[in-house]
Amino acid sequence: MCPMCVVTPDARTSLPATVEAPQQARAFVSEVVCPEHGALAEDAARLLVSELVTHAAVYGAPPLSLQIGCGVHELRLEVRHGGSSVLEPADPDGQLRLLLIDKIARDHGESPDPEGTVLWCTVSTGALPESPEGPTPVRSSGGPRAGKDDEGPHL
The sheet that has 11-15: what strands, in order across it? Predict the structure, then answer.
């Protein structure tokens, strides 16, 4: 189970069922993404939300909305639309869109919702889990001075 973020609450917005929806969704991600855990995942989240919203707008039905949640180790992106299942598009653009989501997202799917259907995906934030003793120290990857002190006495 993913821990819940105490820095940033879930955020939700309505989107127009127009060609402007993906752009508004990307801007919303940039505005509300968790600054502590989501900064490294922002670009991937913007791309994924753009594809989810486009897919919902093309194959779903209004109303459209976007919800973003931070679970510390992953961001969850949810796009609600008023239609039914849209995960099996017949056209190449829809298939490519879903392939892109499949390759970038940690997980993705579709769930029924009282308002219609939710297209969702998760993306890794890159945040490392903390040990009970505190943050894990970062180790040096080596480099020109790695092991310099271990060479023994110099003659």
Answer: 11-15, 64-70, 74-81, 116-124, 107-113
The pair of three-digit structure tokens given for residue 136, joined into one six-digit string: 């894990």
E strand or H helix at 123: strand 116-124
* CATH architecture of residue range(s) 11-129: 2-Layer Sandwich (3.30)
The structure tokens 């579709």 sit at: 110
Q: What is the pTM of this model?
A: 0.78
Locus of tokens 């991600």? 29
Question: In this structure, what DSSP letter does residue 58 have?
Answer: H
Task: Tell me the C-alpha distance between 121 and 78, whole Å.
Answer: 7
Q: 153: pLDDT confidence band, cut at 50, 70 and 90?
A: very low
Q: What's the CA dihedral at 147, 148, 152, 155 to 10 degrees? A: 150
